Every structure is written in C-alpha cells, then in structure tokens.
C-alpha cells in the first residue's frame, strides 16, 4: 500500500491515502464518485443545553459555518481519498464564494460541472445541535434553470442519487449504462405517505442505504431485518443504518450478509453523519472489502464525524482514522474492537502532525481557517 505525502488545503499538511491504490488501472474513469444536488450554507449552533422554546431566547456555546447539503457527501468522499466530482449550482453571493472556495481550494472536489448563478442567493440551513441530535431550519429558492444536472453524466466508478417521491432523475439510467455503480439514499417523507412507488426507482441502482425508520416505512414492515430482506429482493446491495445501533446489510452479488454494531462515542453533532457513512461504504465497496468490513469502516467514519461539531467539515480524514486506530490498538479494554478492525493495519498511514480544517464561526474569517 502506497502512502504519499500531499498538501491538504492551504493551511495544514496531512498524509494522503489512496484506499484504491491496489485496484486502480490506467483504464479507470477519471472520477471515483459523481454527485449532483443542492449545496447549502450550513450554520451550526452548538452547545445548546436544551431545545429552544416558543417565546424564549437560548444562547449557544459555539457556532460554525460550512458547506452543507450534497457538499457533506462530497467532502466526506474526498477526505477518504476518492476523486470526487460535483455538479451543483452556486449563488454569486458571499455564501456562494465561501462554499465554492471551501470545496475546491481546501477539499479538492472537482467543480468543473458546476456553475455560478447570477442574482441567486445561496440556500441556507441553520442546524441546532443538542442532546446528540439536531433540528434544521432551511430557507432557499430553486436556482433559475434548476440544478446543473449534465445531459451526459461523466464517467465515474460510482454515482450517488437522492431518491425523491414523484421525481425521477434521467441521468441515473445513463450513468448506470456507462458502468457506474449507483448508490441510492432517500430523504425523509414530509408528507408521511411513504409511497412504495419510490422503490421502483431502484432498478438502476447497485446499493440502497436508507435508515431504519425509512426502510421500515417504505417496505411496510415492522422490523429492520424484515425491511432488509424486502429491500434485498429489489436491489443487489441493501444496507440499513441505525445510527449508534450500527448497520446491517445483504450483498446479493457476493452472497454475504453482515451486521456491525455502532461505536460507543460521545455524539456532539450528527449533522452529515449519514453522508459520511455512505462515503465509508462506497470506499470499502470500491476497494473490494468483505461486507462486514465495509459496514465496520462506514460505522467508524460516521462515529468519528459525530464527535465533532461542524457538519461537512467534521468528516474524518485518514489522519484521524489512523489516530483512532493507534489509540484503539493500545487500549487494553478494546481488544475485541481492535480484532474487528485489524484490516486497518494495511490502510492507515503513519501518524503525522496536522489537523483538518473545521467549521469557522463566520464566513468573514474563512481566510484564517
């Protein structure tokens, strides 16, 4: 396994790892991951001691700003060493500047398929983090002309689609025909209809990764295992996530089934943790790992992300993974955990000084981040 030193952004240096080094070839697509969707400016209030109540004022101990929405997944995959391309619209306001610069200059996300929209203000999400959970408030308008979904999606090893009731993305079929493995996620159904029709959109997908509540409601089942087996009859790889409860999956291609418990961590801010899980699972899939290790790795990176405030910029990189692994192997109380994660020995780099950029209090300070 090759470990190459690389400059991380303009501020810090860390050790870059290519988790696909053993399987890459000159004929591979330029991108490992193609994404499209909406980028938000996320403003995260942290350290709230309780939920806000009507007619009261609550002071937060901290605040951070970072790119959000589809940027959560783009940053997570890029930090794990996957070549990531994002097609999205960006406003021409200061928030748009901040998100564009964060993704390109600091996070090495390819935005050649993205564009700036004149006169359009960036959508904004405020996240209130407390008791290990978060509440979101969002404002925004669709950009003129819609999101820049390319007529011809780029060649990529994988593509990720967010399934939406009543909407079908035409690019998905074409990307699948080009050989891209389609990983599907699904959002919360605000209408509470949970129409099973959305499952028909999985016909071009390689993997489906809903959370436990979504999976049971869409499949009309009462247990995670029943939902998993129902989904495994529809899509080649079915994964159900349960946050701290871990994840379970069936891979019809390899014939594997697996369950991996969540890691015990102090959850400060779960914003973007689902996206980080998907990034970890994609990484393990492209690297050809056994299903159990794919789940373990996805659980690990998601757990590391919730230990920090800051949404997308809480996504871990290989330096943080290596630090966790070094500490775990030397912890006498974590012998069983260390045995489960022994596969990391062939992946993690030597620990070097360095720190990833985190969410900053205000976009006005971004140059000092």
Structure characterization notes:
With 369 residues, the chain is of the alpha/beta class. It has a single domain (3-49, 59-351), classed as Ribokinase (UDP-N-acetylmuramoyl-L-alanine:D-glutamate ligase), CATH 3.40.1190. Helix content is 26%, strand content 24%. The strands form four sheets. The protein has an eight-stranded mixed sheet with strand order 6-3-11-12-13-14-15-16, with helices on both faces. A four-stranded mixed sheet has the order 5-4-9-10. β9 and β10 form a beta hairpin. The radius of gyration is 20 Å and the shape is globular. 45% of the residues are buried. The model is unreliable at 1-14 (pLDDT under 50).
Reconstruct the topology from this structure:
Layout lengths: L2 E6 L3 E6 L13 E6 L2 E8 L15 E8 H10 L4 E4 L1 E3 L2 H13 L8 E3 L6 E7 L2 E7 L16 E8 L6 H8 L3 E6 L20 E2 L3 H8 L4 H9 L4 E5 L5 E5 L4 E5 L12 H15 L3 H16 L11 H12 L5 H6 L29
Parallel strand pairs: 3-6, 3-11, 4-9, 7-8, 11-12, 12-13, 13-14
Antiparallel strand pairs: 1-2, 4-5, 9-10, 14-15, 15-16
The gross shape turns out to be globular
Overall strand count = 16
Oligomer: single chain
SSE order, one letter for each helix or strand: EEEEEHEEHEEEEHEEHHEEEHHHH
What is the CATH-assigned architecture? 3-Layer(aba) Sandwich
For the record, what CATH class applies?
Alpha Beta
Helix segment tally: 9
Measured by DSSP, the beta-strand proportion falls in 15-25%
Largest sheet: 8 strands, mixed
**Category by helix and strand content:** alpha/beta
> Can you tell me the CATH superfamily?
Ribokinase
CATH names the topology as UDP-N-acetylmuramoyl-L-alanine:D-glutamate ligase
Q: List segments where confidence is low: pLDDT < 50 over at least 5 consecutive residues.
A: 1-14
Helix content: 25-40%
Number of domains: 1
Strand order of the largest sheet: 6-3-11-12-13-14-15-16
Our measurement of the CA-to-CA distance between the termini, rounded to an integer number of angstroms, reads 32 Å
